[in-house]
Amino acid sequence: MTKGAPTFAVDGPVPSPAPPDPEVPVKARRRTFTAAYKLAILAELDKAKPGETGADLRREGLYSSSLVEWRRQRAQGKLRPKEPARRGPPATVPAADAAEMEKLRRENARLARQLTKAQLVIDIQKKPPDAPPSDRPARPRAFQRSGPVARDTC
């Protein structure tokens, strides 16, 4: 069979597919990995027995330096799967609701300031556990009354 010649099938001639272009693209593209893929690879390698890590890296075409960086990202909390994008236009708040929300925010801030002041006053008014029962200092024992007092009548 000659190259590029049509082949015949039951229904008629079928053109042969064109061979893939053997040329390398002009500019190589850097690979990008999703957070979910990185987490899956790290979970798989965390479970791997000693000596299996190299085989897994070769199978995936990864370098150990990538793992170091991914583990660092995971430890810092930067490696999280992205949430799916919400579809549709962004939600807008009507102007009347926005004004009411701003009023409520101001009132909330005012009440929070009042609460802070009230808590400060309460803390000041609290007595330490070793304080005397009244605000006045305790009377010396010589001045304390004990029983009925006899009066001299002259």
What this model shows, in words?
This protein has a two-stranded antiparallel sheet. It starts with 6 loop residues before the first strand and ends in a 29-residue tail after the last helix. By secondary structure, it is mainly α. It contains four helices and two strands, in the order E-E-H-H-H-H.
Q: What's this entry about, in short?
A:
By secondary structure, the protein is mainly alpha-helical. The chain is built from four helices and two strands; from the N terminus they run ββαααα.
Features:
154 residues; mainly alpha; two-stranded antiparallel sheet; 42% helix; elongated
Protein structure class: mainly alpha
End-to-end Cα distance = 153 Å
Sheet with most strands: 2 strands, antiparallel
Determine the number of helices (DSSP H or I, runs of at least 4 residues).
Answer: 4
Element-by-element helix/strand order: EEHHHH
Shape: elongated
Taking pLDDT < 50 over at least 5 consecutive residues as the criterion, the unreliable ranges are none
- The Rg value, from CA coordinates, equals 41 Å
Strand content: under 5%
Mean pLDDT reading:
79
Number of extended strands? 2
Helix content: 40-55%
Lateral strand order in the biggest sheet: 1-2
SSE inventory with pairings:
Layout: E1 7-9, E2 12-14, H1 35-47, H2 53-60, H3 64-76, H4 95-125
Antiparallel strand pairs: 1-2
